[in-house]
Amino acid sequence: MVLAAVGKLYLMRHISTMKIILSFLVLVCIQAAIFAQGVAKPAQTRVPAILSKYTFGMLFAQFKKMHPTSKIDESSQMVFRMEVVLKNPVKGIKEVTFYFNSEGDNPMYEMIIVYPTVAIRDAWVKKNYGASNAGKEWLWPTIEGYNVRALKYSKNFIIAATIKDTVYNDGGTVEG
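-> structure tokens emitted (176 positions)
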């Protein structure tokens, strides 16, 4: 009897400690789930460093100042976007296609990076991004409030942002 009473008293005294431990464990699990989805970082950290002067959300007018002779690719016939292709922009990259929204301030929301070979692309992606975190794709939240999604296709690495008032403005889904 005395032993049962002592055990009950011990349990009652330490129940608040157990609640704290349980709360801590729940918090750790929640944080781990958030981390698994990707830590929110500036969107620009998701762009290859060698292309960092091109930022998601930069306006077409800013891009045009950097490349005054660049022209919009009229062959795409897409009314919702403007395409600009830079050939050999930096060593190791054959070309980059930038997509700008065709309405409003014309923000840049996607870049398609073309590598000389699939092997070069894969080595670069593995070194800079590691394993995919969303099936065969990468998905990262940003501190700017939108997501950045990336995927491999052929010799390309496609990086797109779900910037408001662009084709991918649904806050997370980048089709394509």
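The helical segments are 2-37, 60-66, 118-129.
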